[in-house]
């Protein structure tokens, strides 16, 4: 399975509300970017589309850019905009 990787995706705010779970596991092609995770979720849950360009990314507790390449076993966090007061 060297041509695939498995990542754990931690979900917060709108992502968690939409998927109804705090965490999922995804199998992706090797050399996928962190944006691939977001795009895969948007394909499955089109109601998340408004958050496409607002979402930031974290991998293994570090904030990363959308083009960051994932490795097998990485923990990904999708960080939607938050509001509050």
Automatic annotation (TrEMBL):
User: InterPro entries this protein is in?
Assistant: Beta-grasp_dom_sf (IPR012675), MOCS2A (IPR044672), Mopterin_synth/thiamin_S_b (IPR016155), ThiS/MoaD-like (IPR003749)
**What Gene Ontology biological process does one annotation of this record name?**
Mo-molybdopterin cofactor biosynthetic process
Q: Which UniProt keywords apply?
A: Nucleotide-binding
Cellular component (GO) terms are: molybdopterin adenylyltransferase complex
Record carries keyword Hydrolase: no
Taking the record's annotation, the residue ranges forming a coiled coil are none
GO MF entry, a single one: nucleotide binding
UniProt family annotation:
Belongs to the MoaD family.
Q: What is this protein called?
A: Molybdopterin synthase sulfur carrier subunit
